[in-house]
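Table S2 (continued). Query chain:
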Amino acid sequence: MHGRILAILVAALLLAPGAAIATDSQQDYPFYGGFALGFAAASDTNCDYYGYNCDGNDLSFKLYAGKRLHRNLAVELAYYDLGKLKNKGTFVTTTAEAQGLNLSLLGIIPAGGFGFFYGKAGVMAWDADYARIEGTTTRSSDSGTEFTYGLGFAFTTGGDYDFRIEYERLNELGDEYVDGGSTVSVLNFAGTIYFK
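Corresponding output:
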């Protein structure tokens, strides 16, 4: 299933530049990069069997780079650090530290001179390290590739910068203790610079 999603995304990325050239000059849309500081929160209801829940939150950040292919389309690559998600239960304390690389397509709707709305969908290759403290400490790790999506708004300055607020969902990050994985939600505040 993961391979099929990745193949579809790669095919879309390969076909998108051709469609963009047909309607707009790519010279009008520069490369960009940016930094986002956010708040990551994980939640899962499948952990009650183990006597604790999988809720946790921490500060997170990401570095991203992208290219506008068209007035209404962009491609973006990002590195995420989701911080250390910690949950302290009555008898068990669990922690999860996750990071990953995300490849997304952005659909863009301009909002006059104020900026633009955007929605995004992609896949993330992630790695996570877990600790389960219950008298003794049990450590484990896991990795995978999962679907991601989000939406946001970019406030443009009319120059080489924009400021973004966005919400993203990263699906099913988990290990042997988390049946089906935990969904991580991230609220980001970001700044972008365009390289013309």
